[in-house]
Amino acid sequence: MSASIASYLPQTAGWLAHWQLFVAVTAIFNSVQNFATLKLTRRIYNNVPPANVTPLQARTFAVWTLTSAVVRAYAAYHIHDKTTYDMAMFTYLIAFGHFSSEWLIFRSAKFGAGLLGPIIVSTTSMIWMFKQYDYYVKV
């Protein structure tokens, strides 16, 4: 059974493509969660009154997250394509910019468990992709 599952995983050297797929799948679950409830969204935007984190905002966040998941999943299977690689890297830059600005500029989020995950994933992914650029992208 594990051989059949492995056949669906990215078939490339290194772990970055597998990481991209893992983050994409996690983002899909996060999108579903944002469509279903406000509970975890309110954990991120925890420095505003709970009424300010609306169902509309959560659904918008879900679509944004789902869009990033699609780009990252595509990058997992096309990790050597420069355009796809660049687009995936930009999704992490955008995520980092969003979450850090909500924390440092707009003050809608306090640094804590809800914010820590997105900051770590976006930062780690950007650094990893930047450092491995020449390994994966052959221009």
From TrEMBL:
Its main location: endoplasmic reticulum. It comes from the Eukaryota. The keyword Lipid metabolism applies. Pfam families: Erg28. GO terms for molecular function: protein-macromolecule adaptor activity. It is found in: Endoplasmic reticulum membrane. It is a multi-pass membrane protein. GO terms for biological process: sterol biosynthetic process. One of its GO terms (cellular component) is endoplasmic reticulum membrane. Signal peptide: none annotated. The chain crosses the membrane at residues 12-36, 56-75, 87-105, 111-130. Keywords: Endoplasmic reticulum, Lipid biosynthesis, Lipid metabolism, Membrane, Steroid biosynthesis, Steroid metabolism, Sterol biosynthesis, Sterol metabolism, Transmembrane, Transmembrane helix. The keyword Membrane applies. InterPro entries: Erg28. Belongs to the ERG28 family. This is Erg28 like protein-domain-containing protein.
